[in-house]
Every structure is written in structure tokens, then in C-alpha cells.
UniProtKB/TrEMBL annotation:
Pfam family, one: TsaE
GO terms under biological process: tRNA threonylcarbamoyladenosine modification
GO cellular component, one term: cytoplasm
Protein name in UniProt: tRNA threonylcarbamoyladenosine biosynthesis protein TsaE
Coarse class of the protein's main subcellular location: cytoplasm
Annotated organism of origin: Streptomyces atratus
Classification of source organism: Bacteria, Bacillati, Actinomycetota, Actinomycetes, Kitasatosporales
């Protein structure tokens, strides 16, 4: 789906499996990806688990940077690749942002237990890059964000972003479509 320059275009998948809501967006630039993160932050609340999936360089950390801005957290949001997890406390009285990069973690939830994410989750927003197959058991309700980009030798900044809300918590995602489009 082609989007006009400097805007987001969204589609809602009405055929999504029961218990899931899917919204697809076209993002044209890193600035738009960060802006999308700010808008997603507007629908997040303590206890939310957000899983980010995408190739290297897809924009997972850029989106998380926008989430941090939208949540009003302290500290620069950068990739936690080498430290595995970073906690960004709120400056506004809202939830902290726990940013995890599970790329280097080979095991499932057992290996993730060392990070005590289950302890952090109730009062924080937990964002996990590369979490597929590793953190789903933390919550029945989660937001999966899948970012696709052109691969190979290209400087194309366009991305296709699919938000999949799983569980009762995300039933209203379809109604938040206007918020996400900006």
C-alpha cells in the first residue's frame, strides 16, 4: 500500500483470527517511525507487553525511541543489544519503559526469567526486540509489532508495519486506528 509523503496510511484486517486485531501501516521515514512510536505510547498502560520483530535495521529501536518519548521516560532510548535490558523510569508519573533486546538470548522464557520481566511487567511497559518464541508466556495479552523493510543493497526508508493486538486488552486497537494514523 503506497502512502502519501510524510503521512501514515493504515488498513485494518477485518479477517484477523478471533482474539486478535491487526492494523497495517505504511511508514516512509525514520522520523515517521519515531512518530508512530509516540502515537502507540498514547494507547499503552502499565502491564503492557510489546514485542518487536523485524530485520536488522528495520526500525525497532527507532520505534522504541518514540515510545519512550511518548511515555515521557528518562534517558536516551538506545539499543540494549550488549546490556540485554534497560529500564527508563518515567519523568511524568507514568509507567517505566523496560527495553529488552533478546537477540543474544537463545533460550525461551527460562533464560528471560533472569531478567525478572515478570516482576517488572505489572507496573511497566515492557518492549522486547527479537522476543518471538521467548516471551509470549509473560502475558496472554500483548501487542506484536512486525516491521518489514526492503532488504539488500538499498537506501529505501519505507517500512510496512503491522500491529497485531492479541487478547482482550487489545480489542480496542481497531478503534485506536485514528490515533495511530496521526
Amino acid at each position: 500500500m503506497e502512502a502519501p509523503h510524510n503521512s501514515l496510511a493504515a488498513e485494518v484486517d477485518e479477517s484477523a483470527a478471533p482474539g486478535t486485531v491487526t492494523v497495517s501501516l505504511a511508514v516512509e521515514s525514520p522520523e515517521q517511525m519515531q512518530a508512530l512510536g509516540r502515537r502507540i505510547a498514547g494507547v499503552l498502560r502499565p502491564g503492557d507487553l510489546v514485542m518487536l520483530t523485524g530485520e536488522l535495521g528495520a526500525g525497532k529501536t527507532t520505534l522504541t525511541r518514540g515510545l519512550g518519548e511518548g511515555l515521557g521516560v528518562r534517558g536516551a532510548v538506545t539499543s540494549p543489544t550488549f546490556v540485554i535490558a534497560r529500564v527508563h523510569p518515567s519523568l511524568t508519573g507514568g509507567p517505566a519503559l523496560v527495553h529488552v533486546d533478546a537477540y543474544r538470548l537463545g533460550g525461551g522464557l527460562d533464560e528471560m526469567e533472569d531478567l525478572d520481566l515478570d516482576v517488572s511487567l505489572p507496573e511497566s511497559v515492557v518492549v522486547v526486540e527479537w522476543g518471538d518464541g521467548k516471551v509470549e508466556e509473560l502475558s496472554e495479552d500483548r501487542l506484536q509489532v512486525v516491521i518489514h523493510r526492503a532488504v539488500g543493497d538499498t537506501d529505501d526508508e519505507r517500512r510496512s508495519v503491522t500491529l497485531v493486538g492479541i487478547g482482550a486488552r487489545w480489542a480496542g486497537l481497531r478503534g485506536a486506528r485514528g490515533t495511530l494514523e496521526g
